[in-house]
Structures are given as C-alpha cells and as structure tokens.
Amino acid sequence: MIRAYKFLMRPTVRQEQALGEMLRDHCSLYNGALQERRDAYRHVSKTSVKYGMQSAQLKDIRAVDPERQGRWSFSSQQATLRRLDKAFTAFFRRVTSGDTPGYPRFRGVNWFDTVDFPKDGDGCRWDSTPHGTVTRVRLQGVGHVKVNRHRPVVGRVKTVSVKREGRRWFVVLTAERDQPDPLPATGSVVGIDLGIASFLADSNGAFVPNPRHGRRAAVKLESAQQAVSRFPRVRRDKRTRNHQRAVDKVAGLHGKVRRQRLDHAHKTALGLVRVHDFIAHEDLKIRNMTRSPASKPDPDQPGTFLPNGSAAKAGLNRSISDAGWGVFLTILHAKAESAGREVIAVDPRNTSRTCPECGHVSAENRPTQEKFHCQSCGHTAHADTVGALNVLRAGLVRRDADPA
User: Which among 145, 178, 152, 104 has a CA at the least distance from the CA of 22?
Assistant: First the structure.
C-alpha cells in the first residue's frame, strides 16, 4: 500500500533562495525540452522527439551549464522531462479520443511549483531519525532543510517531492507500507447522496450540512483581488512590496479555503468509515456537470445570441466546485482501503426519481428540490434521503453480482 505524507518545510533564508533557484532551473529545463520538441516537429520533417532522446542530452546540458543545471540532481531533472513526456502522451490520447487536445504549454516561473525526486537517496535523503517534531530532508544543491513532521511516516519512503504553495514550502513523501489491520466489523451498510443544499444525505435519514467555505470567503477574496488589480501587471521580481503583499493575501485566502475543504472532507469520510462496513455512492461525472452551456445563435439576428442560462449555470458550477465532491470521494476511497471497508460507485440516473416503496420512476415524483412524492403509491420523504436509499440498494445489488 502506498500512502502520501505532506509536511511543512522551514528553510533558512539561503535555503529558500536555493529552493527558488531549483524551481527556476527545472522550469527552464522543461521549457527548453518543450521548445526542442516543437522545433523538431515544425522544421525537421515532423520529427518526434521522445523522452529517451532528451534524457540522453542531460549529461551534455549539465556540462555546458554547470552553474544552473549541473548543481541539481540528475534524477530530478529526468523526472521533469518525464513530466513533459506525460503531458504529450495525454495530448495525443485526447486527440485520438476526439476530446479537446490542449497542446502542452510553456511554464512561467510562477506556474512551476514542484520538483520530484523519483527515489529516496538519489539527490535527496529523508532523515527518519526522530528529533521531536523536527526532522530534516537533505536536497542536493540546497542542504539539510528542517521539516515540521507532525505525524510519523509509516513504511519505507519511495519518492520525495518539493512543492511551493504561495510563500510556504512543503515536502511530499510517498511511503510503501503493509496493509494495516482493518477496523472491527460493524455490520452497517449505508448509501450516500451528495448535494448542494446539504453536502451529504445518507440512507438512514441523516444529513451533513454544506459548509460553503468558498462562498463565506467570497467577500474577502473579492476585496483582495480588487487590490491586486490596482497594480500594473509586472514580472514577479519587479513587483513592489505593496503589490507582493496584495498577491500574497489572495494566495493566503485561497489556501485557507482549500485547507478548510480538506479538513471537512477528511472528517466526514472518517466518520463514515468508522461506522459502516459498506458505503455506496453515486458515480458522479463532475467535469461534465460543471461544463458551461453551449451558446445559442439567434437565427433572426446574425451575430447575436439567445439566452442560454449561462449565468444560472455559472452559479451552480461555483457551488459544485465549492462543495469539493471529487476531493471527498478520493479521500473516502483511501480511508476505506486502509480500514478494510468496501466502497462502490453506482450509476446515478433516476436515483432521486425512483420510489423506494413501489419502484415507480417519474420526474413528477420530485415536485421540489427537497420533497419526494410518489405519483403511484403516494409515498413521501426527503428527496435526498430517497436518492441515498436507492444508491444503497443499487450498490448492494452490484456487490452481490460481482464475483468474489
């Protein structure tokens, strides 16, 4: 089992400067490799440059530029080239499947925030010796950086990554460990229905309120973003102190909202995993749900468009993103795996329109957002509870149908 750990780093002033230079030089390597691929395809008879060819050039690149490229880990530079190769692989996969391709773009220094070390001990070294809550990680070209290890790392460290978030630096570890002992069986099963009015409704009639962290911070974010917009657009190293302070405030507010969402998702998922042996949820296609509506050209007036409900859909999209369903489901599956619980995703179609008593399916069964009233047998209940109950039944059917 592979588990990830994220710890706050506390570099000195010189170490922070070296970390920034490391990101800058890896960004330069990424952009140079991308430019080489573009030039080879455009000017050399559509020649494709692969990862192996670019990785073989690293030795010469480090020899030509020892001050910028030669001081960093060879393996971390290979990881940066692999990141570019993965971007091209995803690009060609989307082209083949007919999706919007999205050709790999050049990265600005402000948009390149992670350096990966594929193996602990190769260009980096995680110090597992306990020193209270302070541990150290050694990075080639940077030195021994203090790390606030707020929980023990269980298992053998496989990879190490350095990540910048605003003005903070983090180290992200992946560790391989044995399968932990499962939690005691409770015999309880539950279905959950994710929503906007309530974050979660389960098949037992319980509700988890939606905290709406993004909406609560919207006023402060709007004010902070307006303060940034008063300054002209300049490079990061040319910003005035007030400009940098305004940018840091926006980043801090976004970071706080993100941490609040993660905290809520972790606590909600942990509560479900501790109580229930089996959890069924809807297999939501969140990316499709948050797509903007297509424009409607006016046939009578060329160049104009008819109303398509984009304003209302934009508000719904913000609410869906603010709820953080995708993050919650990812955390739920990870915690269930560690606890030995079973989680199954089921088709969400008609789960809130099907009567749990008689099985009648109709859109009229749900006259309002919250109310469910069966047009056949007269059964009434909360619509989200009905949806969660139908999700549970579908999940149990799928579990029994799947081979052991």
Answer: 145
Strands (E), 90-155: 114-117, 124-126, 134-139, 143-148
CA angle 64, 70, 72 (to 5 degrees): 155
Mean pLDDT on 280-301 = 89
pTM of the model: 0.85
- With both helix axes pointing from N to C terminus, report the angle between 325-339 and 241-275 in degrees, rounded to the nearest 10: 50
Classify 366 in phi/psi space as left (phi over 0), alpha (psi -120 to 50) or beta: beta
pLDDT in tens, 210-229: 999 999 999 999 999 999 99
Q: Pick from 127, 180, 190, 132: which is nearest to 2 by CA?
A: 180
Q: Quote the Cα angle for 82-88-90, to 5°.
A: 105
Rounded Cα gap, residues 336 and 189, in angstroms: 13
Least Cα distance to 156 among 126, 136, 131, 114 occurs for 126
DSSP letters spanning 22-67: HHHHHHHHHHHHHHHHHHHHHHTTSPPPPHHHHHHTHHHHHHH-TT
Residue 334 to residue 269: CA distance in whole angstroms: 9
Q: Rounded to whole angstroms, how far apart are CA atoms 24 and 141?
A: 13
- C-alpha 287/C-alpha 366 separation (Å) is 25
Across the strands, what pairs with 345?
281
Cα 328 to Cα 332: distance, rounded to the nearest angstrom: 6
Q: Tell the burial category of 351 from Cβ atoms under 10 Å away from its Cβ (0-12, 13-18, 19+).
A: buried
- Extended strands (E) in 237-348: 278-282, 296-297, 305-306, 342-346
